[in-house]
């Protein structure tokens, strides 16, 4: 337990593996945690109530009694000082609109969902600020970095970026969330953190393709550098700081997602390399592969900002245009200038 903090009421919206892992960290820090999920997915809440375990998303982890599953969003938000949003990007608009009228007037809103809206191409924090009261707009922070849920709940050291222009909001979230194994590194570059967090999934697919094709680590390492360079170019074009791409939210998260055995985006890439179609690969993984829609958003933003992102283009062609992974990758390696 983190003895530096006084107990607070905090809310986690989203009871998937990351939402549950985050709830466990906050509960172990001594806080009362209200955990909520959409009514199409209340099974995790019911399982936590009954077994103190989210068998659906985080099996085998005994959860803290300080985690209170709440099916009603009004109850979930009641008295909460920090609200963590851990829902898929495509449900964020709906979730924030649904939650906003019940959020306490001075609460901090922490976005843990990584991604850019597939249609509007807006970062999550932009969507959030449109749907909350004006007073809350300055209270939005974004958390992103290499964090595998299963590793967090087993107390492996995890460091992430926390981004906001509001230093007080950053301070409160750090106080609630940090402990001996969770570290948050502040930055004011919100757009950089959001862009990096969103698009590392695309390049993680490429790392999986490398694994499926038995491409050597020398080559993969060079491709990691190439990936981060392309993310950096986009961040700069969108008004962020290019060095954010080389920190925790960019390079750190790409290594975490691109090289982790359990990463869905990486596994998906491996399936593609073995000749399975995008649909078949998705069926084999059986969970959301964020990099699929992100690769589309990435190419749209590249066009909007007149950027040449050749590696992103290769991944897009393999995922969306049925280009054979082996041929596309070998052609790219033959002509890329590292």
Considering the chains and any ligands shown, give keywords for the structure.
338 residues, alpha/beta, Rossmann fold, N-(1-d-carboxylethyl)-l-norvaline Dehydrogenase, domain 2, 2 domains, 8-stranded mixed beta sheet, globular, lipid biosynthesis, NAD binding, NAD
Describe it for me?
Belongs to the NAD-dependent glycerol-3-phosphate dehydrogenase family. Catalyzes the reduction of the glycolytic intermediate dihydroxyacetone phosphate (DHAP) to sn-glycerol 3-phosphate (G3P), the key precursor for phospholipid synthesis. This protein is globular. It has two domains: 9-188, Rossmann fold (3-Layer(aba) Sandwich), CATH 3.40.50.720; 191-335, N-(1-d-carboxylethyl)-l-norvaline Dehydrogenase, domain 2. Helix 8 links the parallel strand 7 (158-163) and strand 8. Strands 3-2-1-4-5-6-7-8 form an eight-stranded mixed beta sheet, sandwiched between helices. By secondary structure, it is α/β, with parallel strands linked by helices. The chain is built from 16 helices and eight strands. It starts with 8 loop residues before the first strand and ends with a helix.
